[in-house]
Write a structure and sequence with these properties.
Elements lengths: L1 H8 L5 E9 L1 H8 L4 E7 L1 E7 L5 E9 L16 E6 L7 E5 L3 E2 L2 E2 L5 E4 L14 E10 L19 E6 L8 E8 L10 H35 L1
Parallel strand pairs: 4-11, 6-10
Antiparallel strand pairs: 1-12, 2-12, 3-4, 3-9, 5-10, 6-11, 7-8, 9-10
Helix pairs in contact: 2-3
Length: 228
């Protein structure tokens, strides 16, 4: 019950929609109109190597935050809400927060530190618009309640640091994915069959539109590939 309340209070997503070619605004609109979808948050995500103040390099998973919504008391569209443990959330370009549990090389990243994208990364200009970030807060995320480290696509293959930055600091041409809240899911305990049944019904609806949405996304990119 405590876990379920924590997930509900932080509006943790029920479903995550991903696309091999990323998601467009049109894809997001189609998801939003799907029966049973209560709310949607498109988001960017990237795995990069970041240089820490002590000189160590950490495999870092970087998530976007909808900074335009953060000043509102109960903003619709802001899912996976962060709990600030120290400092504050990022509201300006070049600011970031990191999760409370991240330790690397025996020391924690602290408020006031500067994290820099390491030169070993490839195609950074296609991923980020900013390469230096000031840590303005330490946060807790319900999406990262496990002590296990997730696999990463760079470096050692294991995520060592989780960081959140404003969505304007990403340079991607498409969203990495979308987080979805399902209507009626919050009324069920997240660890019960009733919750699974509620979510799976909407999951199937999203699968049903997936083929057409994937085809539309590919078609929108085909002229770009032909130009190359």
């Amino acid at each position: 019950y405590s876990g379920d309340k924590y997930f509900d209070d932080t509006k943790l997503y029920d479903l995550q929609v991903l696309g091999t070619l990323g998601l467009s605004d049109a894809n997001i609109a189609a998801i939003r109109k799907t029966p049973g979808v209560a709310d949607v948050m498109p988001a960017y995500k990237a795995d990069l190597l970041l240089q820490l103040p002590a000189g160590d390099v950490a495999v870092t998973r970087i998530h976007s935050l909808p900074t335009a919504l953060l000043d509102e008391s109960d903003p619709a569209g802001y899912l996976n809400r962060l709990e600030v443990q120290q400092g504050r959330l990022p509201v300006r370009s070049g600011e970031c927060v990191v999760t409370q549990t991240n330790l690397y090389g025996g020391g924690a990243v602290a408020v006031g530190d500067t994290l820099t994208v390491a030169p070993d990364n490839k195609n950074v200009d296609d991923t980020l618009a900013v390469t230096r970030f000031k840590v303005v807060g330490i946060v807790r995320s319900s999406a990262y309640f496990s002590v296990e480290h997730e696999s990463a696509s760079v470096g050692s293959g294991s995520v060592q640091l989780v960081m959140f930055i404003g969505d304007e600091d990403f340079a991607m041409s498409a969203y990495s994915g979308a987080y979805v809240l399902v209507q009626g899911a919050a009324a069920e305990n997240a660890l019960t069959d009733a919750y699974d049944d509620t979510v799976e019904a909407v999951q199937q609806q999203l699968k049903d539109i997936g083929g057409a949405q994937s085809a539309a996304r590919l078609k929108s990119l085909t002229p770009l590939y032909k130009q190359r």
